[in-house]
Design goal:
Structural class: alpha/beta
CATH superfamily: Aldolase class I
CATH architecture: Alpha-Beta Barrel
Largest sheet: 8 strands, parallel, barrel
Low-confidence stretches: none
Strand content: 5-15%
Number of strands: 11
CATH class: Alpha Beta
Helix content: 40-55%
Number of helices: 16
Mean pLDDT: 92
Oligomer: single chain
Distance between the termini: 26 Å
């Protein structure tokens, strides 16, 4: 069982030729279908379909409310280390960047947890750079033990692990895993990841499968938008989520749509992803996979996040920091020596985000409801 085998079916697929053949009737038929197939999904991602975005948005909203109600789960990321062995040309934590490196002590993790929990957040995402030396499995297990004192749900966004390692972390309280393939283009992947364990495309691609076999209940995937062609990246990410949904029915499957943000190293995106394209991607995914969590983070502006709420969003980060131990630093108003993984776009407080959600007619939820 491997999604890698599924993605190979499209190895020589001509996305541009497909898009040129898409007609108005094709788009409308795909929007109005109850159950969409893969090519319906691809049709809704085509450039021509963006003119039907209002129709897609209305249906996406109906489907989301039917499956999740009018609720938005709030979470926060906690960065515990920026040590990394990988050279990823777009990432602020890349080993090639001359930044100050930090790894939190357990006391520092506890202090940051207290602050985040004080915001009312009950769902935490533990994040670290990819270094098995600085953030070993034992270090992660002890860190999770601290997080479980404060939060109802703990998800991981760390280096890919083996199934047995995921089981060990599951036993100490981990609920889910988030892993971005970054790009599903295998040839481009090798160009962007020139050094480190992350250069293994297939092993990273199969990460959620190993976590699913370890009984994780939250599996979240996505592509880093801006690295390659918008249509193919969202298409493969959607197929990936659908594959996980079919093979791990016990788990809630989620998708994120992160767009590249300014970071140390000065990497410039290959393509610019517009707000309308972002909306198109989210709506197309919602129509393709009705029961899927869709996350929007503080990479996006407050105004855009507000407008995205009625379009099928189910999870949002709030009051976030992408600096190692950034919550304590922010509270103390101290100047940080290290830099965040990327520059945050929405600096609104948790209370401001809650008010924004209320204002859109939705209910902010602090405790994991899925």
């Amino acid at each position: 069982m491997s999604f890698y085998n599924e993605i190979q079916k499209y190895k020589n697929f001509d996305f541009d030729a497909f898009a040129q053949k898409v007609s108005e009737n094709d788009i409308l038929n795909s929007i109005n279908k109850k159950n969409l197939y893969e090519y319906d999904f691809l049709t809704l991602l085509s450039p021509k379909a963006i003119t039907y975005i209002e129709f897609m948005a209305n249906k996406a909203s109906e489907i989301a409310v039917k499956n999740f109600g009018k609720s938005i789960l709030l979470y926060a990321p906690l960065y515990i280390s920026n040590f990394c062995v990988n050279n990823c040309v777009y990432c602020g934590f890349s080993t090639s960047n001359a930044i100050t490196r930090e790894v939190l002590t357990f006391e520092e993790i506890d202090a940051n947890c207290k602050i985040i929990a004080g915001y009312g957040i009950r769902h935490i995402l533990l994040v670290c750079g990819e270094s098995r030396i600085k953030t070993s499995l034992e270090y992660l297990k002890k860190s999770v033990g601290i997080l479980r004192k404060y939060f109802d749900a703990v998800d991981l966004e760390v280096y890919p692990l083996g199934e047995s390692e995921y089981r060990e972390l599951f036993e100490v309280g981990v609920d889910g895993v988030t892993i971005y393939q970054e790009t599903y283009n295998e040839k481009l992947y090798k160009v962007l990841h020139t050094k480190g364990a992350k250069s293994d495309y297939k092993y990273r691609l199969e990460t959620c499968e190993r976590a699913g076999c370890a009984d994780y209940r939250n599996l979240n995937v996505g592509a880093l938008l801006g690295l390659d062609n918008f249509v193919s990246e969202v298409f493969f990410a959607g197929l990936h989520a659908q594959y996980l949904r079919k093979n791990f029915p016990h788990a809630e499957i989620g998708m994120s749509f992160p767009r590249l943000r300014p970071a140390e190293g000065g990497f410039h995106p290959k393509v610019e992803i517009s707000d309308r394209q972002l909306v198109q991607a989210m709506c197309a995914v919602r129509l393709f996979i009705n029961r899927v969590n869709i996350t929007v983070s503080t990479r996006e502006s407050a105004s855009l996040r507000n407008n995205l709420i009625p379009l099928g969003i189910t999870k949002m980060s709030a009051g976030s920091s992408t600096e190692v131990g950034g919550y304590v630093k922010r509270l103390k108003n101290s100047e940080s020596l290290s830099k965040g993984q990327f520059t945050i776009n929405d600096v609104a407080s948790v209370e401001d985000v809650k008010e924004m959600i209320y204002g859109a007619g939705y209910q902010p939820v602090m405790k994991d409801m899925f």
